[in-house]
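ok so I'm stuck.
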Amino acid sequence: MRILVTGAEGFVGSNLTPKLDAEHEVTALDFLTSRKKSNLPRSIPYLNEDLSSVDVPKLPKVNLIIHLAIISIERVSESSSYEQINITSMLKMLELAKKHKSDLILASSGSVYGSGLNFKETSSFNPLSLYATGKINAERYANFYHRKYGLNVTVLRYTNCYGDLTYIDNKVYPGKKDVMRIFMENALADKPLPLVEGQSRDFTYIEDVVEATCSVMGLKGFNVFNVGTGVAVEVKNIPSMIGEATGKPITVRTVPPRSIDNLQKRSLNIEKISPLWKPKYDLAKGLKLYAEKVCLPR
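replied:
not stuck anymore, here's the structure
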């Protein structure tokens, strides 16, 4: 199968792309200042392009597009111009899929639901940020192209993926560090962990995210799935878990919640995707594996 992965240098993309490349003909697309710090093997065909301005007819003919490229919630919250880039990039991928009748897997987010627990795919949208609103719109664009042009589309609503080791200072549109990466790096550097009190999250280890994405390849029609563990972990309990995983003494400092969306709690119901995929890693096991990887030289 010929596959195009957008956002291939990102956290999910850089873990997914090499796995796919072992069995398929994969082209990676991302937008870097320089490939000197690449998160991908050099053997994978690569397009260093701004997806929002790329010439669609010049992109390769593929059977499947996995659209992961996104500008982060932090950047979008700084300027709505970043969300315009996200929207334009999404529409270009839909036009490419329409042109070649390619299947599309779209990375969405549990942020579409807002704050709460055990959200099902049928739960109401309650976006608390422009970024989350953009994810909802991307899903709706994809649904329109499915209904109008018969495209096969699968939407995956990821939640709090962790296990990130990627370079993030090589991107034209700046990358970000997720909370678990910040926690892990601070712990290994003997720095306090910045803890927001009263929050809980459904944390999903990267290998589970990759396997979930692979499990939906080839589906027909329009599909929406949550990807998580179904378990809301209280953030206040994570420092001790990181201490156990790293063998380091842990200290914390209390910080206020971010003003971007102030999401207090989240977990996703994963019953719908369970016939295709089930998570293998609870948080304790995932953090142990993450700690081992962080300690390895790059």
